[in-house]
């Protein structure tokens, strides 16, 4: 005897009338009990009604797994009302994770063999929704037979089922090749759209299918021409665009067929030009067709004039009022900037205007594209625009903008003075957001430009007097004042206005830096070293400098205290050697020679082993120059081990430096990642003075046709190790072998245990978000033994 239960409309009304979640659960639990009782009683005429109520309960998020076997019974029933609910229940309650889904294979096969179209349609829809690989193999022959049935209704659903089968079992591609060629002659919208989708899937899964369907490129071009010129079906037009969904699918298929194939690309060039020039851009449907046309032109081997047309279409998109269309245009232009640089350059003013967009995603994409457009001919104007954007840009974009300006200036700077001015401007505007190597790069640049020493020290002194909050600027200014303080007082500089500075003013400014609560420990180290060097640059009494240095002999910061103690010892015990020890740093060459004449910006890949081994052993007369402690201002490197000293090495002991410069044996590199053109290689350096420290440089390169954006590398090591990740050189790896991204990882291994590391890479590539996690174990023995 079946308990009295509610009908489906009554159940829906009861659930919607519940005022609290507890009341809703009470209604559902009571009705589920009635449904279970009805299933146990085996009331066949009412089984489909009970399952319909259970499916509604399932849609609300409540458990309904006990209805799975009832779905199988209803599917096996000869009544259409039972099959309809049974197949719907199978699509909702069954999937590949339950073994019960295999039990309906025979029922689907029987229903596909019947001539009743509604039943065949239900079976095909269920197969397309939850068919597993085993089901697809068993039912492939039935679906192939239905592809050529007279009924358009069955053929459309069979095509969709075939698409699902190809995705599940790619080796079934050969079965569906002959029917697809015949289905291309269809005039029915649904069948033709499904056939294009099926051919696209086949070409992506099988190289043999790709070769086969390149023969139908003229037929696809004719279908597209019919859509564009005469209109395919008025009932499928959207905003005056004839069947935009079918146009988009045909364009995607043409893009796959024409990629890296000259003959197919030549056959579709004229048609693509017609689509690009005849499509209305006043409606969003037309913009969608144009965007797919641009992607197709870019991917195939199209003519140069056609590629320029594609870039111009994207340029028109930049003027559209829709933010989404502008974002798509910026993203596409960023992909094209490597292959069609001159064509994209024509739209540079419009791209720069997009920097002022209030939308953060648009301004970020415009910034990436603007940085990619910088070259030796427009470096001055583009840098001026980017510096203006740096002043007013959101905080989360300042780091990317500042790093981009510094990298562009390093590659394309026309003169050394312009390069120095640009870096100083960036440090003044956004010093807290620049990369860690900005200070070292500027000091190296100034040190290598002897003719600009007086100009640089005057400019930096003026900037420091105006603002001591930007720490990188303060560090560079302190270094420069310490090195060239004599030029600040007496040097003549024609490029700047005369600057009257007294020794006391300089000392007071550096003392303010030392006492400021804004100064970092590294900044105080720069300022203290600068004061010490000024004791040999200035002609006045050094008592004030001695007093300042002696105060920091008891500083809580160990690094600063060590400097002060060493400097005090230099005053007391080695005063006769102070002038020689604190003399100016020698000129430093910064990469290639850089004159004041315009030059072409070139980059050379960084090789850490080459840089470490390229420095010759310094002669004994130049060892005194090593007192410059700026390289260790960050305090990262642990102190060197104690040395057995000779009297001649006493000064070196004062500086905590080894008496000889050991040579480094090269450590072989290691490739740890390679996917879709993105590669990551690791190179290793072990400083001889700190054997437990390993410097790992991770270099990411991209040989694919699409940029890798938002690239982030994370690392983890066992607890017995200490790991520190430095800031990477960027977050975008340009396509086709562009400049790589480098990041330094400092690993401290005091126990000399075998090194293991887990890496996680997250990035966007080909429009998809990718996250890869893997473990690296096979490090060379030289990295840890």
TrEMBL record:
Keywords: Cytoplasmic vesicle, Golgi apparatus, Membrane, Protein transport, Transport
InterPro entries, A to Z: Adaptor_Complx_Large_Subunit, AP1_complex_gsu, ARM-like, ARM-type_fold, Clathrin/coatomer_adapt-like_N, Clathrin_a/b/g-adaptin_app_Ig, Clathrin_app_Ig-like_sf, GAE_dom
Localisation per UniProt entry: Cytoplasmic vesicle membrane; Endomembrane system; Golgi apparatus
GO cellular component, one term: AP-1 adaptor complex
GO biological process annotation, one example: intracellular protein transport
Domain GAE: residue ranges: 665-780
Pfam family, one: Alpha_adaptinC2
GO molecular function, one term: clathrin adaptor activity
Membrane spanning stretches: none
Membrane-related topology note: Peripheral membrane protein
Renumbered residue ranges of the record's region Disordered: 585-621
Keyword Protein transport: yes
Family the UniProt entry places it in: Belongs to the adaptor complexes large subunit family.
Protein name per Swiss-Prot or TrEMBL: AP-1 complex subunit gamma
Organism: Monodelphis domestica (Gray short-tailed opossum)
């Amino acid at each position: 005897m079946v308990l009295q239960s509610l009908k489906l409309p009554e159940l829906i009304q009861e659930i919607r009338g519940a005022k609290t979640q507890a009341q809703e659960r009470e209604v559902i639990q009571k009705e589920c009990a009635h449904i279970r009782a009805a299933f146990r009683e085996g009331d066949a005429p009412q089984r489909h009604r009970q399952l319909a109520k259970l499916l509604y309960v399932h849609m609300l998020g409540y458990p309904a797994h006990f209805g799975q076997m009832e779905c199988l019974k209803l599917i096996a029933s000869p009544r259409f009302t039972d099959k309809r609910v049974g197949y719907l229940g199978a699509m909702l309650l069954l999937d590949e994770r339950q073994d019960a889904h295999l039990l309906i294979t025979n029922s689907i096969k029987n229903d596909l063999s019947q001539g009743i179209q509604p039943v065949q349609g239900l079976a095909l829809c269920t197969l397309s929704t939850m068919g597993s690989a085993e089901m697809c193999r068993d039912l492939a022959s039935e679906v192939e037979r239905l592809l050529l049935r007279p009924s358009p209704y069955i053929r459309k659903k069979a095509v969709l089922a075939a698409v699902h089968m190809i995705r599940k079992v790619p080796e079934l591609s050969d079965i569906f090749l002959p029917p697809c060629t015949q289905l291309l002659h269809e005039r029915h919208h649904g069948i033709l759209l499904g056939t294009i989708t099926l051919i696209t899937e086949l070409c992506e899964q099988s190289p043999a299918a790709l070769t086969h369907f390149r023969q139908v490129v003229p037929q696809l071009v004719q279908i597209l021409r019919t859509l564009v010129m005469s209109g395919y079906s008025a009932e499928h037009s959207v905003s005056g665009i004839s069947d935009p969904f079918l146009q988009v699918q045909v364009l995607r298929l043409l893009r796959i067929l024409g990629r890296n194939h000259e003959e197919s690309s030549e056959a579709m060039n004229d048609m693509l030009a017609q689509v690009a020039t005849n499509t209305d851009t006043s409606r969003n449907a037309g913009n969608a067709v144009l965007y797919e046309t641009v992607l197709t032109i870019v991917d195939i081997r199209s003519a140069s004039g056609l590629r320029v047309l594609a870039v111009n279409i994207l340029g028109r998109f930049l003027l559209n009022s829709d933010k989404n269309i502008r974002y798509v245009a910026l993203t596409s232009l960023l992909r094209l900037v490597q292959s069609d640089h001159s064509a994209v350059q024509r739209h540079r003013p419009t791209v720069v205007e997009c920097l002022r967009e209030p939308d953060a995603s648009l301004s970020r994409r415009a910034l990436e594209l603007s940085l990619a457009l910088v070259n030796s001919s427009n470096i001055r104007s583009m840098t001026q625009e980017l510096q203006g954007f740096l002043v007013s840009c959101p905080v989360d974009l300042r780091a990317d903008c500042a790093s981009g300006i510094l990298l562009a200036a390093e590659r394309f700077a026309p003169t050394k003075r312009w390069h120095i001015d640009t870096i100083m401007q960036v440090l003044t505007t956004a010093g807290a957001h620049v990369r860690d190597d900005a200070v070292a790069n500027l000091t190296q640049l100034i040190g290598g430009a002897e003719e600009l020493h007086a100009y640089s020290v005057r400019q930096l002194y003026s900037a420091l007097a105006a603002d001591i909050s930007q720490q990188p600027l303060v560090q560079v200014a302190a270094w420069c004042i310490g090195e060239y303080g004599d030029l600040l007082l007496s040097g003549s500089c024609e490029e700047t206005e005369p600057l009257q500075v007294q020794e006391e003013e300089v000392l007071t400014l550096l003392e303010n830096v030392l006492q400021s609560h804004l100064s970092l420990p590294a900044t105080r180290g720069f300022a203290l070293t600068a004061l010490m060097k000024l004791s040999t640059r200035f002609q006045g009494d050094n008592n004030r400098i001695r007093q300042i240095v002696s105060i920091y002999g008891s500083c809580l910061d160990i690094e600063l205290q060590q400097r002060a103690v060493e400097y005090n010892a230099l005053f007391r015990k080695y005063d006769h050697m102070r002038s020689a020890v604190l003399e100016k740093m020698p000129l430093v060459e910064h990469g290639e020679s850089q004159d004041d004449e315009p030059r072409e910006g070139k980059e050379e890949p960084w090789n850490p082993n080459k840089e470490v081994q390229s420095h010759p052993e310094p002669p004994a007369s130049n060892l005194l120059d090593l007192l410059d402690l700026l390289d260790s201002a960050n305090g990262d490197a642990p102190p060197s081990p104690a040395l057995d000293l000779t009297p001649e090495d006493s000064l070196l002991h004062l500086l905590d430096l080894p008496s000889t410069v050991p040579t480094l044996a090269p450590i072989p590199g290691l490739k740890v990642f390679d996917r879709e053109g993105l590669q990551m290689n690791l190179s290793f350096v072990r400083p001889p003075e700190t054997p437990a420290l390993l410097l790992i440089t991770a270099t990411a390169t991209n040989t694919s046709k699409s940029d890798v954006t938002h690239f982030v590398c994370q690392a983890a090591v066992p607890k017995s190790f200490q790991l520190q990740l430095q800031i990477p050189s960027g977050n975008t790896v340009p396509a086709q072998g562009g400049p790589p991204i480098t990041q330094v990882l400092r690993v401290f291994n005091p126990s000399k245990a075998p090194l293991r590391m887990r890496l996680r890479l997250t990035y966007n590539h080909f429009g998809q978000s990718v996250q890869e996690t893997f473990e690296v174990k096979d490090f060379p023995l030289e990295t840890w033994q």
